[in-house]
Amino acid sequence: MRNTFINRSILFCIIILLLLSCGKQDKVKIGFLFPNMVSDRYQKEKVYFSQRLQELGGEALVKDANYDDKVQINQAKELINSGAKVLVVNCLNLNTEAAIIRDAHDKNVKVIAYDRLIRNCDLDYYLSFDNEKVGKLMVDYVTKIRPNGNYVLLCGDKGDQNAVFVKKGQLDALTSSLSAKKINISYNVFVEDWSGDNARIAMKKFLDLSGEIPDVVLSSYDGMSTGVINLFKEYNIQPGQVLMTGQDAELAACRNIVQGYQTMTIYKSVKTLAYKAAEIAIKISNNEKIAEATSKVWNGQIDVPAILLEPATVDINSLKTTVIADGFHTESEIYGK
Ligand code: GAL
Prior knowledge:
46% of the residues lie in helices and 20% in strands. It has 12 helices and 13 strands.
């Protein structure tokens, strides 16, 4: 009788312990590698991604490589060793970072290229926007206002496939105007690190050497547009004199649009992107297939299953219905009211 009682008590304790250990189950760890934390957008994306992942029962391990691809490759190793089941990588160098995929696959970790493609590797997924369309939207907008004239192309960092995609979208959209000699490309350069300072230096060289003020600057990123607009102010170039594009709907760019210094920007909902990354990372960690990866993008080695979100044009008339309506910036941040 006494023995039965002891046995039952032991069994009861074991069941309680099992239940407790189930409750304490480790959260699935997902690594996120950012290229830097300087851009407005990355700070927001870090928060969006971590929040959504937490809602889904995961835990985000986040690192930022401060513009150094070698650092990023080491950070990937660290996250794999810390138990990350999936890596989400916003890469710094489209060529060197194939190493991350090799290291990850050795340990059975899957990799999502986030926003930027990684070339020549057996990448698992690519999640981004339609970057060629970004370039096309810029050209469609400015050619309606200035169908003729001298255009300058300020492209992004050539170690980022997005810079190449955007440029391709621009050139494709310009083809007929170029062959009809309505538009002439006066200058065309890739800007290291997508940096505003580097864009400014390149544009200053162009202005000083050519003595020409272009009709349009097809700048691929707001940070570069802001650098060049500040230079134009020093050269006494008036708002609207040179049409200026951009991308990312950064706060400074939205303010410049209101003041007439910048013509348009491309808004990409980074909240949608970061949420989607968290959602598919969790599915991948459960070995689920990602049915919504309906596109394919060639990375030099394989056709990578891809999800490509839609970019949108923003100008002075649509700031309220896009960027502000989405809560990306508030009205008072942009208009100072
Ligand atoms: C690119 C991206 C742009 C911009 C840029 C600089 O990869 O497509 O939208 O964010 O990086 O951060």
